[in-house]
């Protein structure tokens, strides 16, 4: 039996990806649980506190929407890192050019697009809260950095192109195996 040498780069990538998946899973669970539990646990104290500070009544509901969007994005992040973990695993096995990896890379591209679309309402809501916070306490500036992210668009394009490369690599391998 021939054993493959252990690649330290792939081992490090696997460890980092496991940690990223754990972080995304934790964020998903916490934020998803916050949406239904927050009204039960915090509404009695938080809403009067927000109103007492001068925030509009809809602020609490918008904070729940923010938690929901973050839960969705974290769940998508988990799927992204899981797909990447599986691609890295196939590289370690010596067989990365497979149709399933092409699907994984394409899925990762769509995840990036979905997260960027989910960020649009999130940035709007946080911006709305920041404007109200600034009105209530001048000088209390909440920095919101959102909008068009060229890096994310570039990442999605790279993932879609890599998916095509992997798809073509798998087809070429199948054709080569058919001719031998």
Task: Quote the beta fraction.
Answer: under 5%
End-to-end C-alpha gap = 25 Å
- State mean pLDDT (0 to 100 scale): 89
Annotation field: number of helices: 5
Structural class: mainly alpha
Topology overview:
Blueprint: H1 8-41, H2 43-52, H3 59-92, H4 99-136, H5 150-179
Helix pairs in contact: 1-3, 3-4, 4-5
Description:
The protein is mainly alpha-helical. It has one domain (8-179). The protein has 5 helices and no strands. The protein has helices spanning 8-41, 43-52, 59-92, 99-136, 150-179. The protein starts with 7 loop residues before the first helix and ends with a helix. The mean pLDDT is 89.
Which tags fit this structure?
180 residues; mainly alpha; 5 helices
Briefly summarize what is shown:
The chain is an all-alpha fold and 180 residues long.
């Amino acid at each position: 039996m021939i054993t493959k040498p252990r690649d330290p780069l792939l081992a490090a990538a696997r460890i980092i990806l496991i940690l990223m998946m754990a972080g995304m899973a934790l964020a998903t669970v916490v934020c998803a649980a916050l949406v239904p539990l927050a009204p039960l646990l915090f509404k009695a104290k938080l809403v009067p506190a927000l109103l007492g500070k001068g925030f509009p009544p809809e602020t609490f509901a918008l904070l729940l929407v923010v938690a929901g969007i973050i839960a969705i994005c974290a769940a998508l992040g988990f799927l992204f890192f899981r797909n990447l973990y599986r691609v890295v695993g196939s590289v370690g096995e010596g067989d990365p050019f497979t149709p399933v990896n092409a699907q994984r890379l394409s899925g990762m591209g769509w995840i990036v697009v979905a997260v960027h679309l989910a960020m649009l309402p999130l940035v709007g809501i946080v911006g709305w809260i920041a404007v109200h916070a600034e009105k209530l306490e001048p000088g209390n500036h909440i920095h919101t950095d959102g909008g068009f992210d060229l890096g994310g668009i570039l990442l999605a394009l790279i993932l879609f192109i890599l998916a095509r490369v992997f798809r073509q690599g798998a087809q070429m391998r199948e054709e080569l195996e058919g001719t031998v």
